[in-house]
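thought: fold this chain, then report.
action: predict
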Amino acid sequence: MALEIKVPAVAESINEVTIGRWAKKEGETVQKDELICEIESDKATFELMAEAGGVLRIKVAEGATVAIGTVICVIEEGNATAAPTVTPTTTAAPTPTASGTPIEMKIPAVAESINEVTIGTISVKSGDSIQQEDLILEIESDKATFELRAEVSGKIELLVQQGQTVAVGATVCKITPGAAGSAPAAAPSVAAPSVASGSNSNYASGHASPAAGKILAEKGIDPQAVAGTGKDGRITKEDAAKAQAQAPKAAPAAAATAPVAKAASGTREDNRQKMTNLRKTISRRLVAVKNETAMLTTFNEVDMKPVMDMRSKYKDTFKEKYGVGLGFMSFFTKAVTMALQEFPAVNAYIDGDDIVYHNYCDVSVAVSTPKGLVVPVIRNAEQMGFHEIEAEIVRLATRARDGKLSIDEMSGGTFTITNGGIFGSMLSTPIINAPQSAILGMHNIVERPVALNGQVVIRPIMYVALSYDHRIIDGKESVGFLVRVKQLLEDPSRLLLGV
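observation:
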């Protein structure tokens, strides 16, 4: 008995995910509740556990994008030794080569949401003799690239062209069994010349898979120069990743006639990488905000000396009592929550023809991770003390950098704080985190000369920026909000007294 493992629903707004890393290999034995693979969405990474024990049969490769509900693997009861190590193709037994009846090869259903695909690289020509499992062509969708392989051996007749868009289920070629199907030598153009004589050379030898081909193209490496370790000598993604580009050969004849130019020092290689789903989502949302809101930014400066003095005075006692450090983020979060309650439009958002006002302050805090920027949410920050805010920031930042934030921890939020100052930013115009209406940008603290009581003094100054949606927040409210934040930070005792 076999148990199908499907991609679970991870959130309402997520319709597809990417298979990240398989923790187990094809044919290995897994135990119930053991990690099988990681699933990546445009918001977070999830772990998929085995629902039962048995032998793992993988249906979807790493890096493939699939719809929610897609079967990505099967767990068969038994142990690894009792099952074949390679998943057989579930086609009918090879058609007798003497039949001569053409077999139609059609575009398979690749995902529920995909209705049409584009014909990618075609690896054979009409009239070629091919063997069963030989690669015929690549199928490209807007989510992934798939391979179409021969179901039987025989002579092929192509019905499509490279670059053509066809519907799922369309016939792309016909294979006539028995038409010189047993004589691969009749198609010399398909043979891989780099394979040494005496080896089991065939079409797959020296041919790169789609993923491997892209990696080799990015590195500028000829597939013929790479030894494949896959089936029948096929170049796998791992082979391509390990391959090293050879130094370009010198052209002495050209050098003798061409003017001598100064050689460029260092390497001049390009490294092309596919955007992650998270990065694509960030890009799409930021562009949408710029295009769909009347965004404006107002600035002010804050004298950070009072906050720095209070922090220096109490940070040791604070950490000893609460077990967390006293940072600047708790001061800014408290100041923001007080100001939001005084200027409710800054804590609201537009929903169609309505304005939705929040009577709570869920503050989103931007966190930089290796995969991109994420914005976890501090719920009901207006009800928290300094130590509670600091502890929650540490917890969320740690989970973000470990890639373990849940959808709930990143959903919602009524206002966002981003701190570019930790990277040395002096001034910026942060982009609103939709559907919110405003975002506060913090920057680095620099000692600057300022006039104080008729005297020029040196003070630690931070520039702060408030980007806001002018459709809902007027200039008076935006400036008033930022001035209120400035007042609270320059006299932090107000934060404790609530005045």
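thought: worth noting. The chain has a mean pLDDT of 80.
final: tokens above.
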